[in-house]
């Protein structure tokens, strides 16, 4: 059986399925005799300690493998275990009501969750969700239930789940999980982006894979095509085993290119840079051969915590990235892009019918100027330590660009007055992710130093198709002629004004996109770190001169399917 989903993270995996459905934890409410109380309190404390150690281990793993922002999620969970009101209430229930620890836990949890949820405040609702999570973990420890997605199966497995939260993804151990496949989610969802950083093949949006597959079934996961084969024929297994070996060999060959320049067969140079969410990612990108950072999503510094990061905290993060990217390598740092699918509970954004079309990103920053200025000050100060460039997200009009630049000029003047160093020549560019901006790119190019095309959003806004909704994913197509024409327009407009154009949407790292974008003349390609060397390898085999004609022809084709097919036959199959 073949199931088709969304190729969320590249790579191939063959192995046995482990289908994981959320288990219900049952226990009996007991009334204790007075002399049983001390032992019950001790049992609770033991479970709390165990929970704390588990969370500490997960936090350290997240810090090592993914990043600080993700690690903070678990730190917030740990705080509950030290909260005297929460812990004291549970002990009180055991002592006064003479109930067992499980019952005390659930009563206290329900009381706090009810209280948080009744506050009609996004931040408190998040706290309620956190408390549910922690309580579930404590309950498992009281009941002696294993806390692991994969248990202790001897063979590494392919995880089959309804959905994976970012915290689930952070916990995955690459030596135990070969790949994961989920019912819901898209290619640009947070856990998909994390899977790519962790190099775990992943397929999302399979609808009902948890029902079609049983634990122990043999699976083939093709992270290039989004195909999952369930109990395939021996012949197909052999084909994929060969593909897997080839893929591993290819990876070894790509690794040879780590210090090579990114040039095409005929000597055309482009920049291959990485997308990051925190300073640790920059180190990963450096080791993966990135020539710089094309997108630092700074909103991750703001997420998973209780209040705004200070200017000092931000300055340290930006400076750290600039220093990692030594030798004047570019570091494009995007100002806060919160809203849409990225919530910030303590900012208390209004509830909206269409958050992706709402109060988000630069719209918030131009409205809450102090918030914006704090970030700009930190960015300018860090620019004294490396080749930092500032980038605004979600610009729709020339007026917004001018407003943002005017605020930036104010901040620069304040720093000059105080004699604080920054790079006076700092480049200031903008994302092109709203069709309106793509259409007036000629006007914007006169006032922005560079463009970076954010296809993740540009596609959803051009096609009126939610990037998270797999039901209409046939519309979410980077190769749709409308999307490609906008991209071409943006690149041409930048070049006409002598500016450079890059791309930091996920499309920039796609095999089919590289020849087209190269032919269009894109100057900078920003992608997940593990994709950089593959792109460099491919680039070396491509001729810029030939691809200009190919790309020109692509613009006359009528559908994404036709375009992909044309690229396959005329470019990819010939490599
Ligand atoms: C890079 C982009 O930004 P994000 O994915 O953070 O919205 C984009 O929209 O393409
Ligand atoms: Mg975007």
Task: Please characterize this protein's 3D structure.
The chain has 575 residues and is α/β, with parallel strands linked by helices. The protein is 49% helix and 14% strand. The protein contains 23 helices and 16 strands. The strands form two sheets. Strands 1-8-7-3-4-5-6-2 form an eight-stranded mixed beta sheet. An eight-stranded parallel barrel has the order 9-10-11-12-13-14-15-16, surrounded by six helices. Helix 1 (37-65) packs antiparallel against helix 2 (68-82) and helix 2 (68-82) packs across helix 5. The two termini are 31 Å apart. The model has no long low-confidence stretch (mean pLDDT 91). Phosphoenolpyruvate binds at residues 188, 295, 297, 337, 433, 454-457, 504-505.
Mean pLDDT: 91
What fraction of the residues are assigned to beta strands by DSSP? 5-15%
Q: Helix tally?
A: 23
Which of globular, elongated, flat, extended, rod-shaped describes the shape?
A: globular
User: Which radius of gyration do the C-alpha atoms yield?
Assistant: 25 Å
Class of secondary structure makeup:
alpha/beta
- End-to-end CA span: 31 Å
Report the biggest beta sheet as strand number plus sense, adding barrel if it closes: 8 strands, mixed
């Amino acid at each position: 059986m073949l199931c088709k989903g969304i190729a969320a993270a590249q790579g191939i995996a063959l192995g046995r399925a482990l289908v994981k459905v959320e288990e219900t934890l049952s226990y009996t409410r007991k009334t204790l005799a007075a002399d049983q109380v001390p032992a019950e309190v001790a049992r609770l404390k033991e479970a709390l300690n165990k929970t704390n150690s588990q969370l500490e281990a997960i936090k350290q793993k997240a810090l090592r493998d993914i990043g600080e922002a993700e690690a903070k999620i678990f730190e917030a969970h740990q705080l509950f275990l030290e909260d005297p009101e929460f812990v004291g209430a549970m002990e009180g229930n055991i002592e006064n009501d003479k109930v067992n620890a499980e019952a005390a836990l659930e009563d206290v949890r329900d009381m706090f969750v009810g209280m948080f949820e009744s506050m009609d405040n996004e931040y408190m609702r998040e706290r309620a969700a956190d408390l549910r999570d922690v309580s579930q973990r404590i309950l498992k420890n009281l009941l002696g239930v294993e806390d692991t997605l994969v248990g202790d199966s001897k063979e590494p497995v392919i995880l089959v789940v309804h959905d994976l939260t970012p915290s689930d993804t952070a916990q995955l151990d690459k030596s135990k999980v070969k790949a994961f496949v989920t019912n819901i989610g898209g290619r640009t969802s947070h856990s998909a982006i994390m899977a790519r950083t962790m190099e775990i093949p992943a397929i999302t949006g399979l609808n009902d894979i948890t029902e079609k597959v049983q634990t122990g079934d043999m699976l083939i996961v093709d992270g290039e095509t989004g195909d999952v084969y369930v109990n395939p024929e021996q012949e197909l297994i052999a084909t994929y085993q060969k593909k897997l070996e080839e893929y591993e060999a290819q990876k070894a060959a790509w690794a040879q290119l780590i210090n090579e320049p990114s040039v095409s067969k005929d000597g055309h140079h482009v920049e291959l840079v990485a997308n990051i969410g925190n300073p640790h990612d920059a180190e990963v990108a450096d080791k993966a051969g990135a020539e710089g950072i094309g997108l630092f999503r700074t909103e991750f510094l703001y997420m998973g915590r209780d209040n705004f990061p200070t200017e000092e905290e931000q300055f340290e993060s930006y400076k750290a990235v600039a220093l990692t990217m030594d030798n004047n390598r570019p570091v494009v740092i995007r100002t806060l892009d919160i809203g849409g699918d990225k919530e910030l509970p303590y900012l208390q954004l209004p509830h909206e019918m269409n958050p992706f079309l709402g109060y988000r990103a630069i719209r918030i920053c131009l409205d809450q100027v102090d918030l914006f200025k704090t970030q700009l000050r930190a960015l300018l100060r860090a620019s004294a330590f490396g080749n930092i460039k500032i980038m605004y997200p979600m610009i729709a009009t020339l007026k917004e660009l001018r407003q943002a630049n005017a605020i930036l000029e104010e901040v620069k003047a304040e720093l000059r007055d105080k004699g604080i160093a920054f790079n006076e020549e700092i480049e200031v560019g903008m994302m092109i992710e709203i069709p309106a901006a793509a259409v007036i790119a000629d006007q914007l190019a006169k006032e922005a130093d560079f463009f970076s095309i954010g296809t993740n959003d540009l596609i959803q806004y051009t096609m009126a198709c939610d990037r998270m909704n797999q039901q209409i994913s046939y519309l979410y197509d980077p190769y749709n002629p409308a999307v490609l024409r906008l991209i071409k327009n943006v690149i041409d407009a930048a070049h006409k004004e002598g500016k450079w154009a890059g791309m930091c949407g996920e499309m920039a790292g796609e095999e089919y996109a590289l020849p087209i974008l190269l032919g269009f003349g894109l100057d900078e390609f920003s992608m997940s770190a593990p994709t950089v060397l593959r792109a460099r390898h491919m680039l070396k085999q491509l001729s810029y001169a030939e691809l200009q004609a190919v790309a020109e022809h692509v613009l006359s084709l009528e559908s994404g399917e036709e375009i992909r097919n044309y690229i396959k036959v005329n470019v990819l199959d010939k490599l």
